[in-house]
Amino acid sequence: MIVGDKNMTINENKLGGRFTFPGTTLEVNRMGYGAMQLAGPGVFGPPKDEDAAVAVLREVVAAGVDHIDTSDYYGPHFTNQTIKKALHPYPDNLVIVTKLGAKRPADGSWQPAISAEELSSGVHDNLRNLGLDALDIVNYRVMGDPKTHGTLEGSIAKEVTILAELKEKGLIRHIGISNATAAQVAEAQTIADIVCVQNNYNLAHREDDALIDDLAKQGIAYVPFFPLGGFSPLQSSTLSDVAARLEATPLQVALAWLLHRSPNILLIPGTSSLAHLRENLAAAELSLSTEILSELDGIAASSHGTAA
């Protein structure tokens, strides 16, 4: 079915089609939801409007989304508590993915929480605040560069081993890695079965291209965060021009491009707005032509010089 520009069609696979996490029975739509923005400003403190946050979460599930990404250090605690208030008891098909590796002291800063005691405590905090007996998937979030929080090489064997031990106790069902280099992913795979990798990736930030392709061959999910640049939104006249021609928003086009990039990519765009939620979900219905994809692919090259 053609909509608007000749380069845009409706994708008949609602919410991007289906994906099964490797070695599991967990099957989700490729368009998910990230709960980070439900917390207060700076991902700290309670939601600005708890009733609105609850309404967004209920709309998420009503729309067919069955993959929610969260963490107990969002708030901290408030985001998970809001998820529980809105959705517990959870639908049988809902997969909740959380992460460990950070803590939020009273000053609102982001600090590592990677000792055995801190990781174990983090699991129990997630279980309590989500109202669960076991966590579907837990990502170990590598804090990385202390200045930028970007990736930074270094062994993560100790932390992944701790998660593997928590999995043996039945508190965690599956393990993922976040903010990790290819070498760290490979190291983690020598310790545990890794079902997903969650890294910074978008039209302009494509350092993980080779990693995505390698994970696709293994059937492992790749979950990009900051699909439009995060706290420093990417500025691209190309993206804006394409969006205008398709009668879509730049974010919708950026999300649609990610779904086209590789079949193992799962999306978790976040918002605290019902209107923005509906816009995000509609991005799964955009089908981009090869010409449009080629045009968008040029953004990455341009971003390393003058903005496209």
Description of the structure:
- With 308 residues, the chain is of the alpha/beta class.
- The protein has a single domain, classed as NADP-dependent oxidoreductase domain (TIM Barrel).
- Helices cover 37% and strands 17% of the residues.
- It contains ten helices and 13 strands.
- The longest helix has 15 residues, at 116-130.
- The radius of gyration is 19 Å and the shape is globular.
- 46% of the residues are buried.
How would you concisely characterize the structure shown here?
The chain is of the alpha/beta class and 308 residues long. 37% of the residues lie in helices and 17% in strands.
Topology overview:
Elements: E1 8-10, E2 18-20, E3 27-29, E4 33-34, H1 50-62, E5 67-69, H2 78-87, E6 95-100, E7 102-103, E8 111-112, H3 116-130, E9 135-141, H4 157-168, E10 172-178, H5 182-189, E11 194-200, H6 209-218, E12 221-225, H7 237-246, H8 250-261, H9 274-282, E13 286-288, H10 290-303
Parallel strand pairs: 4-5, 5-6, 6-9, 9-10, 10-11, 11-12
Antiparallel strand pairs: 1-13, 2-3, 7-8
Helix pairs in contact: 1-2, 3-4, 7-8
Summary keywords:
single chain; alpha/beta; TIM Barrel; 7-stranded parallel beta sheet; two-stranded antiparallel sheet; globular; disordered N terminus
> Taking Cα atoms only, what radius of gyration do you get, to the nearest Å?
19 Å
Give the structural class: alpha/beta
Weakly predicted, low-confidence segments: 1-12
| Principal-axes shape call | globular
Distance between the termini: 31 Å
Domains counted in the coordinates: how many?
1
Strand content: 15-25%
Q: State the major sheet.
A: 7 strands, parallel
Tell me the number of strands. Answer: 13
What is the CATH T-level topology?
TIM Barrel
Helix and strand sequence: EEEEHEHEEEHEHEHEHEHHHEH
Would you tell me the overall average pLDDT?
A: 92
